[in-house]
Write a structure and sequence with these properties.
With 498 residues, the chain is of the alpha/beta class. The protein folds into 2 domains: 3-241, Rossmann fold (3-Layer(aba) Sandwich); 255-497, Rossmann fold. The strands form 4 sheets. A 9-stranded mixed β-sheet has the order 15-14-16-17-13-21-22-25-26, sandwiched between helices. Strands 3-2-4-5-1-8-9-12 form an 8-stranded mixed β-sheet, with helices on both faces. Strand 14, helix 10 (302-309) and strand 15 form a beta-alpha-beta unit. The protein starts with a helix and ends with a strand.
Length: 498
């Protein structure tokens, strides 16, 4: 079993439905540098252009490593690279030479040319750390033909969580994403995006789910510059290799200590005032967490000011895209340790997952509820509170089911929460989710509407409605939901109107 598989299976063997798992595998994150992976045949000129762009632009320094002899360098010079340095290394001893190490130290890009992947891995294993350094400082790595497999698992593993080349290995290593590139085609990876250039197709292969029979082998095509999300693919592969989620019998939705305020977006009723009151009053320590894909937010978010206007005198905010900070940075963990209330902002909910899921910060968020505090949020900040995350797709919010981003932060177990519900016509989407996972209680919340959850009861406030989808007890009259207005109360465990 591979190291990645061991991590994945150990993490996913935890109790089904658990939302914080200290042993969960660290997910594949945003790539520090870029990759260009060519198939057999002719390398598209556009692939060279992308390697140059990923390396920093015209004049970037390229090192070409070959195990079979000289290669043609003029195409690289014509693409805009500085005169490349070609190193032919036929033995491991040659590969560890001082000249090669010096060349890599100044490289903006490295290209593995010619030869079999196994041969590249054997010869260049001793300089793997130097190749990895090129990537970590934002440079570009690439290869084509048989040599391309060197980049992935089974080779030098410079591209984490993936294999490159023969997709027949997908069943043997189900926790990995298996990349296949057609002839005269190249695959470009930058940040978290993956797309193909050239004449043919590039594909990502995922193994059939070990626990969900409805999820057979999956192939994601990137033909014609169709963009895929590498992190979502990696998360999906790991999930397919592990235990079922959601569980057939997920933990019942109850909040024995503390309160949840779940707002469907738009104008807040009087929720912020109630949030402050439930946290302990104006002097209670509050934390606002914005939902943003930006690495740094320089300006104080507007919600912080609105909390102060509502009466809060002890409010701060935290933000990071670095999961290491979510595990160890006192500026992130300190406010959460003291908090009596946390408010999650609106945006795209997958950002919360990337930043905080299964970190020390995530555990401290749950601790706020355990000590009787309050967690609230609007729009994305509503959906993230559920165990099942609705609309987690980083590529767009059109799909309510997004494999790879199906786990929320889990403050309310056994449910899926959607927002902007009536305004955006999301009733059929929730029906589709319920058909796929009938064991979940589906909750749709209108704009300017709040569901206040304490114990097993949710109370509706605001100008719109909250919709409850219970596949076990369908309502009469053709509708598959129960819609409640302000003042109504619903038992989330018994699944009935009170």
């Amino acid at each position: 079993m591979t190291r990645a598989a061991a991590f994945a299976l150990a993490a996913l063997a935890s109790a089904a439905g658990a939302q914080y798992d200290a042993d969960a595998p660290e997910p594949l994150g945003k790539l520090a540098g870029g990759f260009v992976i060519g198939g057999a045949g002719e390398l598209p000129g556009e692939a060279r252009d992308w390697l140059l762009q990923l390396a920093g632009g015209s004049g970037a320094k390229l090192v070409v490593l070959s195990v079979e002899g000289p290669v043609e360098l003029p195409p690289w010079e014509e693409a805009g690279f500085a005169v490349p340095r070609l190193v032919v290394a036929r033995t491991p001893g040659e590969a560890r030479s001082g000249d090669l190490a010096a060349a890599l130290a100044g490289a903006d890009a490295v290209w593995l040319a010619g030869g079999r992947a196994a041969r590249h891995a054997e010869v260049f294993a001793g300089i793997r750390h130097a190749l990895l350094e090129v990537h970590l400082r934002g440079g570009a790595l690439g290869a084509d033909g048989d040599a391309a497999a060197t980049l992935g698992a089974g080779g030098l593993a410079l591209l984490p969580g993936c294999t490159v080349g023969d997709p027949s290995r997908v069943g043997d290593e189900p926790e990995l994403v298996h990349l296949e590139v057609a002839r005269d085609t190249a695959l470009v990876l930058r940040g978290r995006s993956v797309f193909a250039v050239g004449r043919g197709d590039a594909r990502a292969h995922l193994a059939a789910s070990a626990t969900n029979a409805a999820r057979g082998p999956r192939i994601v095509s990137m033909r014609g510059r169709q963009v895929a999300d590498l992190i979502a693919l990696s998360r999906a592969a790991v999930a397919r290799a592990g235990t079922a989620f959601p569980a057939d019998a997920p933990p019942a939705p109850r909040v024995p200590n503390g309160h949840l305020l779940i707002v469907g977006g738009g104008e807040l009723p009087d929720t912020l005032s109630r949030f402050i009151e439930l946290a302990g009053g104006p002097d209670a320590p509050l934390v606002f967490i914005p939902c943003s894909s930006r690495e740094v937010i320089e300006k104080e978010p507007g919600t912080v000011g609105r909390l102060r206007e509502a009466g809060a005198r002890n409010v701060t905010w935290i933000h990071t895209k670095d999961r290491r900070r979510s595990d160890a940075d006192p500026s992130i963990l300190g406010p959460l340790r003291e908090a009596r209330g946390i408010w999650f902002g609106g945006g795209r909910q997958w950002n919360f997952v990337d930043s905080y899921a299964n970190t020390a910060a995530h555990e401290l968020m749950h601790a706020v509820l355990e000590r009787g505090g309050v967690i609230g949020g609007s729009s994305a900040g509503a959906s993230i509170q559920a165990s099942y995350l609705a609309r987690g797709d980083p590529l767009g919010n059109g799909n309510i089911i997004a494999e790879g981003y199906e786990r929320g932060l889990g403050f309310l177990t056994g449910v899926a929460i959607d927002q902007h519900f009536t305004k955006r016509g999301r009733h059929r989407d929730m029906t589709a989710l319920k058909n796929a996972f009938p064991q979940l209680l589906g909750i749709g919340v209108d704009e300017a509407t709040e569901l206040h959850v304490h114990g097993t009861v949710g109370e509706v406030r605001g100008v719109g409605r909250v919709f409850f989808y219970d596949r076990e007890r369908p309502t009469r009259g053709g509708e598959d939901f129960t819609a409640l207005e302000a003042g109504a109360r619903y038992d989330l465990v018994e699944r009935r109107v009170l």
